[in-house]
Amino acid sequence: KDRDGKIQLFAIDKPKSEWSSPLEVWKEAYKHEQFITSKINTLTKLATDESDYTALPLLHWFVNEQIEEESSTSKVANTLELIGNSGDGLIMLDRELAARTFVYPTTGGVQ
Q1: Dihedral of the alpha carbons of 44, 25, 11, 38, in degrees to the nearest 10
Q2: 102 φ, ψ (degrees, to nearest 5)
Q3: What is the distance in angstroms between the CA of the first residue and the CA of the last residue of the chain?
């Protein structure tokens, strides 16, 4: 509203809801994070090319956040590859993931 921009919304395909294994889930999650990173990078380049300096701080926050997201999903996928079919390994990973805490993001002044 502040900048009189116009948006156009498109339909979103129904997401996949069944996987063959936890490893497949996390591999797809990692691929999706890479896809999101590419879209954020495209937006950042567009904002830079268009001299849209007010958009850049917010986009840079997302750029940095994606580093963490890709790292996190990749780490879990790699761990699952090592675990294989070990039930004990899956329980240990499940406990590790359950112990994670959400940290509310700071935007460095961007609201």
Answers
A1: 20
A2: -85, 130
A3: 14
How far apart are the C-alpha atoms of 39 and 59, rounded to whole Å? Answer: 11
Angstrom distance (rounded) from CA 104 to CA 82: 31
* Topology of the domain comprising 22-98: Ferritin (1.20.1260)
Q: Which two tokens stand for residue 58?
A: 């917010």
* pTM (two decimals): 0.81
- pLDDT tens for 52-94 read 999 999 999 999 999 999 999 999 999 999 999 899 999 999 9
Which residues lie below 8 Å from residue 60, measured CB to CB, with a gap of 6+? 44
What angle separates helix 22-49 from helix 56-83, to the nearest 10 degrees? 160
- Token output for 21: 């294994």
Domain ranges of the chain: 22-98
Secondary structure, 3-state, 76-92:
HHHHHHHHCCCHHHHHH
Contact (CB, 8 A) for 97 and 43: no
